[in-house]
Amino acid sequence: MVQAAKPIVTITGVSGFIGAQVCLDFLKAGEFTVRGTVRDKNNESKIAPLRKAFGDHFEQLELVEADLLDADSIAKAVSGSTYVVHTASPVVFNPKTDDDVIKPAVDGTHAVMKACTASGVKRCVVTSSMAAVVAMAASDKPDLTTGFYDETCWSNP
């Protein structure tokens, strides 16, 4: 009996905290071919921490290059995927303009959604940015010794 190939899940931004956690969970599950996007596969300062954190699972990860401001690179990364988890979002600590953060976040998400539509992706999950929880009131913060940030934890501008 011929075994069917595992569905491909593409995770954008695997060198980021959320992307790495999501990626490792998919790798550990073993039910998917896992593809992760990074801006530069040869940037050891970004790849070495993944290699260390993922251990033996790192060898199961297919790394591909994609940039939020390059729709063609996003389309290429998503091509052939059954599922996509879009975690990539810019983290800019001292933006000169709003466009330093907003343009890549919005344009990148649009590019991912268009690529998913063009490739026939069955489901795309879009995660939020850390900005959604970075400025919450002290009373809204979770007790991190016993819990995690969840849907009740939001910044209060």
**What is the CATH class of the largest domain?**
Alpha Beta
How many domains comprise the coordinates?
2
Question: What's the SSE pattern?
Answer: EHEHEHEHE
Class from secondary-structure proportions: alpha/beta
Q: Compute the number of helices.
A: 4
**Could you tell me the mean pLDDT?**
90
Q: State the end-to-end distance.
A: 58 Å
C-alpha-based Rg, rounded: 17 Å
Please sum up the structure shown.
The protein has 157 residues and is of the alpha/beta class. The chain has helices at 17-29, 44-54, 71-78, 99-119; strands spanning 8-12, 33-38, 61-65, 83-86, 123-126.
Keywords, separated by commas or semicolons:
2 domains, five-stranded parallel β-sheet, alpha/beta, Rossmann fold
Any overview of this molecule?
There is one protein chain. The protein has 2 domains: 8-126, Rossmann fold (3-Layer(aba) Sandwich); 131-157, no CATH class. It is of the alpha/beta class and 157 residues long. It has a 5-stranded parallel β-sheet, with helices on both faces. It has 4 helices and 5 strands, in the order βαβαβαβαβ. Helix 3 crosses helix 4.
